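Running this now, will post back.
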Amino acid sequence: MPEDRKVEGVIQNLSVQRNIALASLGRIARAGVVNRAQERAIAAQQVEELDIKTPSLVQKVGNLSGGNQQKVALGKWLAVHARIFILMEPTQGIDVGVKFEIYELIARLAREGNAILLVASELPEVLGLAHRVLVMRAGALAAELDGFTARADDILRHALGAQDVADQPR
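Update: finished.
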């Protein structure tokens, strides 16, 4: 799931139904014709499971809140039963309530045995969700930390290439 949901995650002028079903077209289309009943069923299931707030499945995604747009973007990949998820800043620009819903979803996906690659710049998000933390600096791997024992100052020290974060200029 890309970092910029408005540009790369969803198609703003398409409906919730079409956006969610996009990744499933290979399964629900024959000879270029989309089975609308299957498309509707796939979308309805994701709207219910993710608690997407929308007046209808035909609502344009661009008219939804940022958090609900993010849920639509996630629902598209959940609908294809993906087992590997690459999530780029999955809670960027959404309200706190939806953030926690997405955190719970990520944790559930991991518990179910899915692989999650979470790219995040918010330290509380990384510390709360990651089993393993890979810290990047200048485009290279600076450190690999255990997600259960990593601390914010450990991550910052490696990200900044510093011996002690407290010694860094403020």
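Residues 5-130 form a domain with the Rossmann fold fold (CATH 3.40.50.300). More later if anyone needs it.
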